Amino acid sequence: xxxxxxxxxxxxxxxxxxxxxxxxxxxxxxxxxxxxxxxxxxxxxxxxxxxxxxxxxxxxxxxxxxxxxxxxxxxxxxxxxxxxxxxxxxxxx
Length: 93
Prior knowledge:
This protein starts with a helix and ends with a helix. By secondary structure, the chain is an alpha+beta fold. The chain has 2 domains: 1-38; 42-93, IHF-like DNA-binding proteins (HU Protein, Chain A, Irregular), CATH 4.10.520.10. It has 3 helices and 5 strands; from the N terminus they run H-H-E-E-E-E-E-H. The strands form 2 sheets. It has a 3-stranded antiparallel β-sheet. It has a two-stranded antiparallel sheet with strand order 3-4. Strand 3 and strand 4 form a beta hairpin. The protein is elongated.
């Protein structure tokens, strides 16, 4: 599903315009980004939890030259699905 398809579906479900639904989707993405960039987490019951994990620096290889390189430490976004979402995906009821 693309963003455009999501916006259309949300607009139909809420009985609102696509412009209003697009604003909501953009706001949701912006807020999730803002919260995660602070290192906090977001819990959406029935959907899951967005959080930040630390990735340690590690050794890697340049695939073109085979030269060993050091990949710097970084933070990555994580998502853990809620049991309700897992059950829906696996069609358990």
